[in-house]
Amino acid sequence: MNLVFFSLHYLTLAFRRISHRKNKMSIEERVKKIIVDQLGVKAEDVKPEASFIEDLGADSLDTVELVMALEEEFDIEIPDEEAEKITTVQSAIDYVTKANA
């Protein structure tokens, strides 16, 4: 019985550490990771001023998928008229930060 409790206790602690790490990741880091994953670009190219289309090589479908990934990751809804304004890394970070305030 003690062995089961001991095992469950450590599994719970491990899960909390993993969850805590994700929560500790800043909005900026999470947005940049999504951009890297969605656009297949290098992390060092994802600078605040980088334009998704002009600098990171995204097309219109890529930007739609990027917005959808942001909505899913941050559990937010981005209206089309707002999505059209998200054209740079910094504008994505700013929008998500404001939506999570």
Automatic annotation (TrEMBL):
Its main location: cytoplasm. GO terms for cellular component: cytosol; membrane. One of its GO terms (biological process) is lipid A biosynthetic process. It is found in: Cytoplasm. The keyword Metal-binding does not apply. The modification O-(pantetheine 4'-phosphoryl)serine is found at residue 60. 4'-phosphopantetheine is transferred from CoA to a specific serine of apo-ACP by acpS. Keywords: Cytoplasm, Fatty acid biosynthesis, Fatty acid metabolism, Lipid biosynthesis, Lipid metabolism, Phosphopantetheine, Phosphoprotein. Carrier of the growing fatty acid chain in fatty acid biosynthesis. NCBIfam families: acyl_carrier, PRK00982.1-2, PRK00982.1-3, PRK00982.1-4, PRK00982.1-5. Belongs to the acyl carrier protein (ACP) family. This is Acyl carrier protein. It comes from Actinobacillus pleuropneumoniae serotype 3 (strain JL03). The gene is acpP.
